[in-house]
Amino acid sequence: MTNTQPLLVSADFNHVDNWVFDLDNTLYPAACDLFAEIDQRMTAFVQKELNLPHDEARIIQKDYYKRYGTTLRGMMIEHKLDPAIFMSYVHDIDHSPLDAAPDLKAQLSALPGKKYIYTNGSTCHAEKVTKYMGIDHLFQDIICIAKSEFLPKHEDGAFERFIELTSVDPTKSTMFEDLPRNLIPAHQLGFKTVLVTSDKDWSHEPEGVRPAHANDIKPDHVHHTTDDLPRFLEEIVKDIAPNT
Predict the structure, then answer these.
(1) Where is the region Disordered (predicted)?
(2) Per the confidence metrics, is the pTM higher than 0.90?
């Protein structure tokens, strides 16, 4: 089921000069299960680093994710972990579940203005993902968790850091993201917000910090939702084109 809403583009997107995209489960579809590989490796890392049984490591990983915004942030605060070791390990994955994305490529290419990736992951991971998808050349910059001083997106100061690094005007920018809580600060700063949903079962993730499901009620801080990013962008491009 596609829940792309009818667009009031003249009111919502004609003013946008900057298009900011989360990476995991946003630029690529959650259905490919690429992030499941990362999730499993995060558990394995915690298990090995803290010398714990798998099930206990899994509980701690999800607790850190809920409390700190990322497993990495929890490991840094609670265990003084070197973030480079963690990032290298968890992003050492098989990218073959990804497919080329010609429809997404076409719509990203047609969007007027600058495109950015803003991710709680690493630049290396983002570069590999976008290369597999054939869209790596379309982005002005990748703002990764390291460039954000390891502040997860929902924390105070994270989006301000993104703005500082990119010089974007948030009132002329749109943020696409699969995690509802990460759009709260974006909305507060003036970004137009688009929540990218899926039909995937997220019940294994902690309540309150799960990626968005297509049947979820749209939060007040979200302007639009879609479970089909290329189609959503296509509608934007169609409606903006006559006015540009």
Answers:
(1) 202-224
(2) yes
